[in-house]
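User: I'm new to structure prediction. If I give you an amino acid sequence, what do you actually give back? Let's try with this one:
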Amino acid sequence: MRYTHSLPTLPSFDGKGLFGYTFGPLQQKDLEIYYIEVEKGHDTFMISKRITRVYYVICGSGYFIINDRRYDVSRGMLVEVPPKVEYSYSGKMKLIAVSKPRWFSSNDRYTKWNPDVLQGDFPLVINGGSWKIFGKSPISVYLGLNRRLWRKLPAALSTLGPVRSYGDLLHTLARRHGVRAQAPSTFFLRNRPQLELIRRVIEQRAKTDTLRVAVLGCSIGAEAYSVAWEIRSARPDLKLILHALDISKPAVEFGKCGRYSLVASPLTDTDILERMTETEIMELFDRDGDIVTVKSWIKEGIKWQVGDVAESESLDALGPQDIVIANNFLCHMYPSMAERCLRNIARSVRPYGYLFVSGIDLDIRTKVADDLGWRPLQELLEDIHEGDPCMKTFWPWHYAGLEPLNKKRGDWKRRYAAAFQLVLDDKEAGDSGNESTSVSVDAPLHEAMLDAPKV
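Assistant: Good question. You get back a string of structure tokens that encode the predicted 3D arrangement of the chain. For your 455 residues, that looks like this:
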């Protein structure tokens, strides 16, 4: 029997304003203990159904709002929060929290954002629906049943018009009612056609030029290193300045180290090297037993930063970028927040620069691209859309599922484009005096992208 427990090596959960660790598993099945580092506060206000939570302030200070009343706290104070009361907390402090009984997924009802951490409209769907039958959402049951049926459907049938239309309906329900949360899945060389298009774009750069690239939502670094490897392999003469930014401090710190296990990664639920050949692994990494470390010539020039793409300050600090990559995190945001973030991200791209953005609700991407006049790149469009196999397997029953490409749509060349050149309109171009030296999309390129905290 185990009598002592140490702090886990890596966080068990994080949010925009905190991250935390779960001790155990403990022998007491009805008890759970956490260590929490609060940087801003809990993301939301919440009401517990059955769990009583007790918080002890190790250091720092802040305050709890419990039933609309503020309680200031500092080192050495204890806070007890019973079930069925609304509460949240803010500040900069370190906490020990005890949950009795253990946390379970249907316990918490989230009521609103904590304004010290997040602003904007609060999505009602975050609680999984307003009414349930036998404790389950009817829409969740309906989507779960269709998921099982869809997986058994022959591929030839899924492309038929009526079946495709039914799939579109299911996906609309999934996007409207799905409970969204950031996912830890990531891979090296995740979308090879997209990396190839980046290579073709940079081939047009002048020799000894400086290339500024930002990889947003970089997670534990797999995409940032993949992009850096592609660029440095194709154009070693360029001076690459690559910003890797993510909201999760533990993920950024892990990525900066550039050390990965061939056995299992503690911060992701995928085999992040599974899409690489042995030759590619040898080119990208130095190996020591079951540990691989990104080679120094690839890591050179990468600046790792903690930031939030919803905040202009985080992106303004990067400065104008030639290429911005924002892949596979906007789909996990609710539509209003995703649109706001995408418009904010676009401000980081210098005139005639490039934006690569996949893993997002296509309606949102198309709307923002049309509103802001982005030019969709047509080269490799279909290959990039099909380039990440795992996203296709989630359609139509999951909100993050990738809609199959449909050439019968009149707008398909815009809707399914995941790479854009951001140009100025005629008036803006005249005012700025800038001329495009980048690839034009009017000709071929060779001619001219938490779990919610438990406590």
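You can read the tokens as a compact description of the fold. Here is one thing that stands out. DSSP finds 15 helices and 19 strands in the chain.
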